[in-house]
Amino acid sequence: MHHRIKGKIILLSACGWVGLTGYVGQAQVVERGLTPAANTYRSYQDASLNRDSGLYQPLNLLNDFYPSIEVHIAKHDNVRRRPEFQEEDLLITAMPSLGYRTNFGRHKFYAAYNGTFTFHQDLTQEDADEHGFNTKLGLDLSRRWDLELFGSIGETFERRGISGSRDFSSFGNMCIDCGPERIGYRTYGAALIFGRKIGLVQGVLGYDYRSTGYTTNNLDDLENFADSRDRTSESIHLDINWQFADRTSVFGRVQKTDIEYDRRDNDLDSSQVNYLLGLRWKPVNSLSGALGVGVTRKDFSNPAREDFDGSVYYANLGYAINPFSNLSINASRTIEEPGDVSADFYESDLIALGWSHALTPRWSFDVYAKSINDDFNNGRRDDFFDWGGELTYAWRSWLSASLYYGEIERESNLEGIAYDDRYFGLKLRSDLRHFFKRSSDENQIEPISFGKVTRLEAVKPKGRK
User: Fold this and answer.
1) What is the pLDDT of residues 169-200, one digit of tens each?
2) Could you give the CA distance from residue 11 to residue 458 in angstroms, rounded to a whole number?
C-alpha cells in the first residue's frame, strides 16, 4: 500500500501538477489549449503583474544536460480557425529542448534551446517553426547580495485566432495562404538581489529590455502599416518581499515601462506604470497560492490617444483534495499590446479551472476550462471559451503518453471573426535524460522549459525493488 501511495504522488508530479509542492503558477491551466494574450512575445507570462518571481529557477538544477522532446499528433476540425468555413487537417507538432546547467565556482549558469516545428498534412503552407535560446547567470556577490543576468534571442510564429490577434479578414485575399506571421525577438536584463540567502526581507532591483519585430507583417490591404506593431520596451522594477511566517509572505512591486513603436510617427509610444501588492501563503499542506492586486497607468505620447488607468490583479490557488487529486484556479486581468492595428491596447480578463487525478500509479487524467474576455479600446470585444481533457499513462520515468481532446470557441462583436475548433490527438513526452544519467541517480530535476522546472522521481518498472 505504501508503494501504491508513493507511486500516485510521483505520477502527479510527472504530469506537471504542483499542488503538493507549495508553488502555484499560471502555467498549470493557462498554457493549456488556447494561448492567451500572446501577440507580444511571452507577454502574458512576463507581464509585470503576472510574473511571480522566478529568482529560484532554473538555477537550482543539478549540474548536467537536460534534453527533452514532446510530440503532438492532432486532428483539427478548423485548423486555421477560419470564421467563414472550417478546414479539417492533421497537425503534427514537435517540441525539442536542451538545457545545460553548471557552476563557475560559487556562480551558477544555465542555458537552453527550445524549438517548435509544425507540420500539416494538407495545408502545408501553414507549416512553421520557432527557435529560442535563453541563458541565465547567477553571481554570488556576498552573503547578502546576488546578481542575475539573463537574455534570450529567437524567432517564433503567431498562430491565427489567438487572444488579442487581429481579425482573419485583415490578411486579405492574397495573404490568406501566406502562412502564420513570424516574430523575431531578443531580451536581456539584470536583477540585483538583496537578502535572498539570509533574513526575512528580500529586495530586487531589476531592469528588462525587449525587442519584438514582425518579420513578415502579412497585412496585404494594410501593407502601409507593415511595421506598425514592431516595438521595443525598457522597464525597471523594484520588488520587496517580507516573509513574516514560516510559509507566508507579503510582497510589493513598482514597475515603470517605456514602449516605443517602430513607425513613422510616435503616436503609439507610451509609458506604463504598475503598482502591485500581494500575498503568498500556504496555511496547510493541501492549500497554497498567490494573490496580487494593483493598478496600471498607461499614458500615450500622443494626447489624442486614449490613456488607461485601472485595476489589475492575478490569483493562483492550488488545493489538494487528497494525495491523488488536485484542483487549480487561475484568474487575472492584464493590459496588453494588441495585434489589431486599429486598437491601442486591450484589457484581458481570464479565469481558468483545472482538476488532476491519479487513477493508479501509472494512469492519471486532468481536465481544464477557461474563459478569456478581451476588451479593446476601440470597442471590439472578443469572448473565448476553451476546455479540454487528457488521459496520461506514465510508461517509464522518462516517457509518458497521453490522449487528449479540446474545444476552442471565439465570439466577437466584430463581424466575421467568430470561429470554433475541435481537436483530438496523441501526445508523447520524454525527458531523454534517462539515456545519459547514472543508474545510481534516484531523484532528478527536469526542466519543462526555460524558467519552469519540476521534480520528477523515477517510477520503477514492475518486478524491480
Assistant:
1) 666 555 677 778 788 889 999 999 999 888 78
2) 9
Confidence of residue 217 (pLDDT cuts 50, 70, 90): low
465 found inside a domain: no
Cα(150)–Cα(190) distance, integer angstroms = 6
CA distance 139 to 148: 6
Above 60 in pLDDT, residue 234? yes
The C-alpha atoms of residue 448 and residue 23 are separated, in whole angstroms, by 15
Mean pLDDT for 388-402 is 92
Which of 448 and 184 is assigned the larger pLDDT? Answer: 184
Give the structural domain span for 233: 2-457
Query: Which tens digit of pLDDT belongs to each residue from 140-172?
Result: 999 999 999 999 999 988 888 888 776 666 665
Instruction: Please list the alpha-helical segments (H only) found in 240-330.
Output: none
Give the number of domains in the chain. Answer: 1
Residue 244: per-residue pLDDT: 84
Its sign, for the CA torsion 335, 338, 343, 348, is: negative
Say if 356 falls within a structural domain: yes
Cell, residue 149: 543576468
pLDDT of residue 328: 92
With vertex at residue 372, the alpha carbon angle to CA 428 and CA 209, rounded to the nearest 5 degrees, is 80
Residue predicted with more confidence, 359 or 168: 359
Q: Can you tell me whether residue 29 is helix, strand or coil?
A: coil
327 is a domain residue: yes
What is this structure's pTM?
Answer: 0.83
291 — phi, psi (to 5°)? -135, 130
Name residues whose C-beta falls within 8 Å of residue 157's C-beta, 6 or more positions apart in sequence: 128, 129, 130, 180, 181, 182, 183
Contacts of 335 (CB under 8 A, 6+ apart): 272, 296, 298, 308, 310, 312, 345, 346, 347, 348
Residue 35 and residue 93: Cα distance in Å, rounded? 15
Instruction: Give me the numbers of helices (H) and strands (E) for the chain, helices first please.
Output: 2, 20
Q: Which of 124, 116, 123 is nearest to 183 (CA)?
A: 116
Q: What is d(CA 46, CA 235) in angstroms, rounded to the nearest whole number?
A: 12
Q: Is residue 48 part of a domain?
A: yes
CATH of the domain at 399: 2.40.170
Cβ proximity of 13 and 7 under 8 Å: no
